Amino acid sequence: MRHISKLLVTLIIIVSTSTFGYTQDTLVDTETPDTFKLLIPELGVLIDSALVNNGMLGYRKNEIEVKKANLKAKRRNWTRNFGIQADTRYGTFDNFSNNVSGPNTVTLASTTTQTNYGVGLYLKIPVFDIFNRKSDIKQAKAEISQAESLVEFQEYEIRETVIRYYEDLILKESLLEIQAINLSDAKVNKEMAKKEFTNGQMEIYEYIRISDITAGVATEFEKAKSNLLLAKKLLENYTGVQIK
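^ thats the sequence. predicted structure below, dont judge the formating
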């Protein structure tokens, strides 16, 4: 009776171990590392693309053009005080004229319906505009310089961000390759342990320990793959360049 009980316990352990081993094999059945080898463009290409596609940088550059136009407008402000004025009048007018004949002067009066035209030039000299013009132009130039500095700073930030994303992607790709090698080694080690356990050359607790290690390596591989895909998507979204 005791022999029968021991035999049943042994069979249960073997069946449970085989089921566990099958589960682990399914878990570590991942893609090969060559699948994740990316064709990453050169850093300079990514930076140039990011500079072209960055919306905030485009806004800053347009702001410079607006401020340059504002400077031109302030330089032309003096023309507001100079101009041509014309008018026309139609109606009945009383006309007077003097006729001088010798010592006598005769005044003649007449009423006529006519149209009168008038054209003339005018020039105003506002004192405030004269003294304030230099200050307005200086302020407009300072605003342009400020906007240009913001563009340079924005370009610097874009270049720095692209470099960070690029280096992070390279790092994540290398880490995935390392994890893929570790996973391959762990799978081989597990297969060897499985054979030894089947042949009775390894205790069950040692086989379970090795299986747990293999599962942990597989988990780290999946994390590394996820991190690589995330780094790839971040760089693509920022630069507008699709990486295959």
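Residues 127-198 form the longest helix (72 residues).
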